[in-house]
Specification:
single chain, alpha/beta, Rossmann fold, 2 domains, six-stranded mixed sheet, binds alpha-L-arabinofuranose
């Protein structure tokens, strides 16, 4: 006959075993519930034309992990047809939500209709589609207010012009990818503010496709054509601005002094050039959209109604500001 102590020991051991088994069961149940909640999002990115874009891709990848979202990402390599193919593959895969950056505004209606027929909600991320596209074909837009960014650039110029000499001031504008929403709206916002002021003379406008190499090429041509008539450069993104600065320095023009430079994005390199005096104003456009996108994606997958348009608050950094406390930009 086993003694009383032995019985107690065995009893305690058995209870412990039971407790461990129960705990394991609960964990497995919890994990499978989490798996069931984890949504699959298809994301079509346009490429890697700028530091901004690379930062945007990184942010989307990191935010997907932070938000417990499975991400299926395709890089369209700057081609709309590749993006459309990626969207069709997401539909075939029956993802829970699609998000994509429309490289240009037009040409999306058919594929958006296909997503709608498949019952997959679509989020426009960073760029907009044309106003002619039926807004019922997408659930939300998350990205900048590009028109406001253009206005911010124009507002800085009005202030800067007060201290500039010369009866008239010649402006050249480097625009982004033709027919893309940031290029269209940054132009509109800027001109909304400066047009009608007789002191500003628009000399020319060229598309540098948001690329550093094209920014340099365009600026070389503009300098050749207009020489010292150029007083101001308004560049739709930092990458093109870097190229334009290279073109200026190659012919002895001092950027930020001989030509006032207004750039858009707010990459670390641009802020450093602003501190050096080579850029006069940087209008912020944040690429950190991932958390907003995945929060909306999860709400859409849960059948909730979401806001149609969400634009993060953005800053303007100028030569008049004290930037000593500005934290690293992260892109
Ligand atoms: O759509 C946002 C724009 O695209 C950024 O200003 C630019 O740098 C990027 O390539």
């Amino acid at each position: 006959m086993p003694g009383r102590t032995a019985v107690l020991k065995w009893g305690a051991l058995l209870s412990l075993l039971l407790f461990i088994l129960l705990l394991g069961g609960c964990r497995r149940q919890e994990e499978s519930q989490n798996d069931a909640e984890e949504i699959l999002v298809g994301f079509a990115q346009i490429g890697s034309e700028s530091g901004w874009r690379i930062g945007n891709t990184r942010d989307m990848e990191e935010a997907a992990v932070r938000n417990g979202v499975r991400l299926m990402m395709e890089d369209a390599n700057q081609k709309q047809e590749n993006e459309i193919r990626a969207l069709r593959s997401f539909i075939a895969y029956n993802v829970d939500v699609i998000t994509f950056v429309p490289i240009v505004e037009d040409g999306w209606t058919n594929v958006l209709q296909e997503a709608k027929q498949a019952g997959i909600p679509v989020i426009l991320s960073d760029r907009l589609v044309s106003e002619d596209v039926d807004p019922d074909l997408y659930s939300a837009y998350i990205g900048a207010d590009f028109t406001q960014e253009g206005r911010n650039a124009g507002t800085f110029l009005l202030k800067k012009a007060e201290e500039m000499e010369g009866e008239t001031l010649g402006i050249v504008e480097l625009t982004g990818t033709k027919d893309s929403s940031p290029a269209i709206q940054r132009e509109i916002g800027f001109h909304e503010v400066i047009d009608g002021n007789a002191r500003f003379v628009m000399l020319d406008q060229m598309s540098g496709d948001f690329l550093r190499s094209k920014g340099r090429e365009c600026m070389e041509q503009l300098i050749e054509r207009y020489g010292d008539q150029i007083d101001i450069l308004y560049s739709h993104n930092d990458a093109m601005t870097y190229g334009a600065i290279e073109a200026m320095e190659a012919v002895g023009i001092v950027p930020g002094r001989d030509i006032v430079i207004i750039s858009v994005d707010g990459e670390q390199e641009a802020i450093d050039l602003l501190r050096e005096g080579k850029i006069n104003c940087v209008v912020e456009c944040t690429p950190m959209l991932g958390d907003l996108v995945f929060d909306i994606a999860k709400r859409l997958a849960a059948g909730e109604t979401v806001p149609k348009m969400t634009s993060p608050k953005e800053a303007v950094f100028t030569e008049y500001d004290d930037l000593s406390d500005l934290p690293p930009r992260g892109y």
